[in-house]
Amino acid sequence: MAVQVGDPQHETPEGRLDLETLELQLLLEGVYRQYGYDFREYAVASLRRRVWRRVHAEGVETIAGLLERLLHDPSVMERLLLDLSINVTSMFRDPTFYGAFREKVVPLLRTYPFTRIWVAGCSTGEEVYSLAIMLTEEGVYGRSRIYATDINEAVLARAREGVFPLDRMQEYTDNYIRAGGKHSFSEYYLAKYEGALFERTLTENVVWAPHNLVQDRLFNTFNVILCRNVMIYFDRPLQNRVHQLFHDSLERFGILALGHKESIRFTGFEDSYEELDAYEKLYRRIR
Ligand SMILES: C[S@@+](CC[C@H](N)C(=O)[O-])C[C@H]1O[C@@H](n2cnc3c(N)ncnc32)[C@H](O)[C@@H]1O
Known about the structure:
Strand content: 15-25%
Oligomer: single chain
Order of helices and strands: HHHHHEHEHEHEEEEHEEE
Bound molecules: S-adenosylmethionine
Shape: globular
Mean pLDDT: 94
Helix content: 25-40%
């Protein structure tokens, strides 16, 4: 974890870590050693909030109490994993991003005979279905393969099913239109009970797989990497390591897409990319 002895923000007057920080470190160490998930370098403020939420939800008093529970009960770990992995997502999230991608990235993809795209931290898949819809409309989906990965297997299972809440379809339709959608959004799904079942053809070229950005290594090379709203939860050294992984995984002139609140600045890789779109955080690897 990012907090170390010597960090005055988390120290007692005697120079020890405050108890809450110590308990949080022990929890993250226990999670790592017992279950193999490494959250030790995630940004502290958001971790702390989420851990406390789980402490209360499990009916214990302290973070140490939560550690005791989860070491002996894997179902507590499953619930904590859902809290810590923060799976919030939506279709055509940030519609202007998709507009910029159509305008600035798709023409580059047209020059390739085949495109490999990695969506890292894809959560329940809404981003992947959005991308597949856009690439289909632009006529390049047939020669693309999308590798969609996440640390959390439970969200990947939902992504594979391709069923999304019906009550979000109005919001997604608005996003789709603002993203420059060319058809009627409802053509892409079948309304069934509470769910919207998306066209199977949209995932014909998608490979869903677990991958942990903190612990797993390079597994292919790509023309495009999308990693949006994931690294915002990592501390700076971890962000830099993941940027190294992306740099190693991207073909020269490949595209890197980050979330609106993320940036290549101060990562040590600024000079390796040119900006295709500064606001939309679209970068092109140049060295
Ligand atoms: C807020 S969601 C973002 C989803 C989507 N990219 C978007 O922008 O809507 C963050 C996702 O990152 C995943 N994640 C968190 N830590 C990860 C890690 N170490 N490796 C891979 N995925 C991770 C979470 O499980 C979650 O699904």
